[in-house]
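Write out the 3D structure for:
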Amino acid sequence: MIQLKRTNLAFERELLGSPFGFKGAYLKELWQVVALMESRNGKLGLGLGTQSTLWSDAAVFIANPEAAGNAVMFLMTAFALREAEKRGFDHPMTLLDDLLPATYQYGQTITGYRNLRLTFALNALVAVDNAAWMLYAAENGLHTFDEMIPADYRKALAHRHRELASIPLMSYGVPQADIVKAVADGYFFIKIKIGADPDKDGDLDKMLAWDKQRLTAIHESIGHSDIPYMDNHRIPYYLDANGRYDSKDRLMRLLEHAQKIGALERIMILEEPFPEEYRVDVRNIPVRLAADESAHSDRDARERIEMGYRAIALKPIAKTLSMSLKIARLAHEQNVPCFCADLTVNPILVDWNKNVAARLAPLPGMRIGALETNGHQNYKNWDLMKSYHPRAGAPWMETTHGLFHLDDGFYAASGGILEPSQHYLTIVK
């Protein structure tokens, strides 16, 4: 049992370069949470988390000023860290099992939402979970990510990619010219947000018309690209609706349009098309649907797989590494591919995500792995944030011609994730 001598918690507000739109709303900043655990043996665990109230529960985001929504999630992190200090833990995954129900219940109380989404509590727990993993590694003399992962979960993380497709995100306001430039710069797997509310009136017919127009423009401008990392050499489209489509009928109207313009077979992933509560069999939808927010836990992921979802977006940086390992193992057992998606996290958390992405099997049709990362597009002070990384300047941190190149140094150092950042340590020590 790892007993904690003390804990501490702090956050930094990081401004975005411009409002970041999805789910029909916009973010202006993201809080970077820092959790410290110190054991009675004097070992340290320093965990980071990036909060996104809009992603994890849009109802909480919309009902509060942006800072107030972040403050609510931060209070949940503080609650969980206090509970961890009282309890101690044998393993990070059992600690999450202990903390999640109580943290969720606390969140229901302070938000006033009985139907608070479980992802809101998981997002609040990321910094605590990461601190627990780092402390667990230090206490047990584990020096790499591979050593740290329990044996029962390693089959789901058995690959060792040398290259990962770096997936940028094109949110509502990104001009078409920027998408064209990204492909010219070597990016080929680009995540496109659909489901905008163009006139801010909630009209879903206008949303559908906007999505059709955007898909047409994208296909006409980049659809001819030849991609050597794909089996068919065609550029894939990765669409993310964030639950904005209300029915299969409306989604099928979009896909019928895609077929009409010759883009249907290019849609490699269509992520989270429906609201979470819209439980319907999707096996007859002619593209690979991926679950993201709705796959809070391994239990929820199983339900989505049974409904016909054929991919899972893993988010160790948003739902905790512990929960993501459970989901990855389940998906592997069900022969459902996974990939790692971003939450617009800081550079250190990008490498937490990268350690998982580097070990997942490629998506069907791809010859290399993939990792979404969009912080470089959205944070005002991204270059300064990179300097906080314990391995700042390492080659694996940078995208070159649309790829992350993972050398032996990346695997030996586990991307630096088990080393404390001096910058973040200073604000909690």
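The mean pLDDT is 95.
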